[in-house]
Amino acid sequence: MVGPKLNERAMVAGERSGTKATAKYVRTSASKARVVLDLIRGLDVRRASEVLRFSERGISHDIAKVLQSAVANAVHNEAQEPDELFVIACYADEGPTMRRFRPRARGRATRIRKRSCHITVIVARMSDDRIEVLNARDTARGGAAGRGGSAQSRRDRVERSRQRAAGLRDGRPAETTDAEATDAEATDAEVEELEEQADDLESTVEQLEAAVDELEEQSAIPNGAVEAPEDGSVPEGYEIKGNATSLKYHPPGSRYYDITQAELYFDTPENAEAAGYEAPAGTPSVDETESETEIDTEDESQTDEGSASDESESSEATPSETNQQGSASDESESDEENRRADEEDK
Predict the structure, then answer these.
(1) Structural domains in the chain, sorted by start
(2) pTM of the model
(3) Is the pLDDT of residue 307 over 90?
């Protein structure tokens, strides 16, 4: 271990320096505990607690418990102030080691050493010069009253509480000092101010809630739609049903129109689709209907053009067919004349 375990005066008979606390048989090795103990040795209690709180080692939790126990012993047994204490010494001694065995290859066994340690933390009061330096540092950082001031105010409050409790036990009315009366008046004024602020906040919250409700009502009904009447009738001019659960609209005469529970009624399919609703399966939407209409128009135009071209082709092909028919008749007449000439020769 680096450094002495205790200060020099602890070795003198009849003298004692600091208050200690010990945790025995902690299930970790002494070497792991000494790494953390070296970080808090010589620090004041507040700083040591911060170091242990933000340490990443698992043994820090156990060491923090030992430190809190040492501070509690100093406050209870020695009437010390916790803000005036520092870690004068801390160390870890090796404890008993439990030996276990683990089976290995070829029938061998390997020893497992489960180590333990004894952790000791000793705290003592800082010197007056060091306390003044720490108080000045806390004041420069924005501290309220420093270490001594907070301890003194705490002692005063405890003493007043004890006197008040003793008076109540004896049957005497509790005496109110000037300081307590001033504190009570200040507390009443603060309570009244807080109540006024709470009332203002409540009124502001109510106004905001009313504005939010109005906006929700306005944004709930889209353009070209009305709410479904409570009697179940269909509004005049708004015959397209809109279901908010499925976000689908059903025009009159569609497959699911009669069984659909409508929350909104739309006047046109365009407004229904603009509100985020879509046509159910098997029902063409507005875009599909428009595209089909355009396709039909194109087909009709193409059909008209095709019929006109067929007529022109037929009119053009008529003279040629006439010529072909005339040539065929001429050939038949020449064949008959040839046949007649052959008969005469015979």
Answers:
(1) 8-126 (3.90.470.10)
(2) 0.42
(3) no
